[in-house]
Amino acid sequence: QKEVEQDPGPLSVPEGAIVSLNCTYSNSAFQYFMWYRQYSRKGPELLMYTYSSGNKEDGRFTAQVDKSSKYISLFIRDSQPSDSATYLCAMSLGGNQFYFGTGTSLTVIP
Amino acid sequence: GAVVSQHPSRVICKSGTSVKIECRSLDFQATTMFWYRQFPKQSLMLMATSNEGSKATYEQGVEKDKFLINHASLTLSTLTVTSAHPEDSSFYICSAVWGLTNEQFFGPGTRLTVL
Lengths: 110, 115
Known about the structure:
Chain A is an all-beta fold.
């Protein structure tokens, strides 16, 4: 079983839709949870960072961590064509080990 | 967010030559830097973990003598692809970890093409 599971998609939504991206994980000791956005031929950009459980909101983006279910989500409200990218979830125990999902490819259609 | 730079952004070289890629954390000191490789439409593949002043830790299957990593300071790590061959052509991305929060910030990547 992989440490982190993420549906690769692709996911295609119309502009203005609410997007829900999800990852599940197996290690209950993970404490740090991150979402990255990666445009084609670019390095990943850190979008959201959460320590432990709960919700975090930043503009149109909301990250949720449910440690009891070992499930994290990223919601994008009022999606825009510029949100079209690959979204990677990542988790860490702390220290030098990070575990990444395989990424979900999102296309927002104008 | 914190900024990580990579240089060069793109390099084309002949087979057999060596290529050096620099990774710098511009506004913070990084406890750890990572080097990744990424093929088109694939996920990140961790190559090695680099800590300042110590030898890099390579992932299984990554040749230490081919991919030389030097972590000279808390803000600079370099990856040298020695005697590059066409199969080394790829997108190389570095990242740096800010120890206070364990956030990992990525560089913009370097596209290496070996002819």
